[in-house]
Amino acid sequence: MWHHQPIEIYLAMKYLLNRIILFLLIFVTLASCSGGDKGNSNNGHTGSSDQDKTTDLQLNISIFLDLSARIMPTKENPNPKDRDLEAIQAVVDFFRKNMKSHGAYKANGKLRVLFNPTPEDPEINTLASVLQVDLGTMDNRQKKETFDNIQDRFSTALGRIYDQSLQDQKWVGADIWRFFKKDVSDHCILRDYRNILVIITDGYIYHERSKQKADNRYSYLVGPLFQSLGLRKNVQWQSIVETKDFGLISTRSDLESLEVLVLEICPEVNHPEDEDILEYLLGKWLKEMGIVRFKIHSTDLPVNTKANINRFLAQPI
C-alpha cells in the first residue's frame, strides 16, 4: 500500500501543475483580448472622443435677432417680445454656467447679439454694443463682473431695444439669406471654438435688398410664393418641392463647423400649414450649406422653448 504513495503524489502534483498552467493560459488570453478590445474601443469610438473634445471647447455663441413686424403683439401671439427675451435669457444662462465650469482663469468664451442689416436707430446700435461679450480679452476681475451682471445686462439692453423698435415701427427686418451668404463665417465661426448660431425669427425669409431668383430657387421665403407654387393647403406640397427643386438659393457648403438653432417659427394665422413648409425648406437650406447639426423649433410656451434650448446646447456634436 505504501509503495504506491509516491506515484499517487506525483500524479496529484502533475494534475495540479497542469491546472495551474491551464489557468495561467486562460488568464493571459483573457487579458490579451481585454487589451485588444480596449484598443479597438479607443480607435473606433470616435463619437465619444469627439464629444469630449467638443465639450472642452470654449463657446462662441451668436444670437441673430429678426426685429421685423413679427415682434408686434397680436391676438394669437400677444407677447412675442417676452418669448424672445426668455429664449435669449436661457442662452445667456447656459453661457454663464459654462463660464463657471471653466473657471475665471480659463474661461475664454464669446457671446454676442447680431442684427443684419444694422438698425438705423442710433440708440439701438448703442444698446447693441453692450450685447457683446469676449472673455478672452478680460482679466479675472472683469470676468467676475461679467459673470455677476451678464443676465441683467442682456435683459435690460434687449428690453430697451425691443421697446424702441416697437415704438419706432421701422421694420427693417432681417436679411438672413444675405447674412449666411456673406457674413456668417466672419461673425460666427472661430477655429478651436464650439460655434453656435441661434436665430430667432418667424421663419419667413425676406428683405428688400435681397430679391434674387435662379430657376425655382429664391433668396426669400414668403407666403405669396408658397401660394403661387400651390404648396398651401396641399398634402402633396413636399413632392412639389422636391420635383421642382424649390427652395432657398444655396451659395456655399462650408459651414460644417457651425451649429444652428432656429427658434420661434410662427406661420401666418390663416395658413398653419406654412409651419411644416418653412421648417422643411429651412432644414433643406441648412443641410445644403454643410451644416451638420441644427434644430428648428416653432414658437411655444417659454418653459418648452427653454427646455429645447438647453437640450440643444447641452448636447454638442
Give a description of the structure.
- The N terminus is likely disordered.
- The protein is globular.
- The protein has a single domain, classed as Rossmann fold (3-Layer(aba) Sandwich).
- It has 10 helices and 9 strands.
- The chain is α/β, with parallel strands linked by helices and 317 residues long.
- A hairpin with a 2-residue loop joins strand 5 and strand 6.
Helix percentage range? 40-55%
How many angstroms does the end-to-end distance come to?
77 Å
Count the helices. How many?
Answer: 10
**Could you say which structural class the secondary elements and strand pairing correspond to?**
alpha/beta
The radius of gyration over CA amounts to 29 Å
* Average of pLDDT: 87
CATH architecture classification name: 3-Layer(aba) Sandwich
| Whole-number total of structural domains | 1
Main sheet characteristics: 6 strands, mixed
Count of DSSP E strands?
Answer: 9
Please state how the strands of the largest beta sheet are arranged side by side.
3-2-1-4-8-9
Q: How would you sum up the global shape?
A: globular
- Unreliable parts: 1-5, 7-11, 28-54
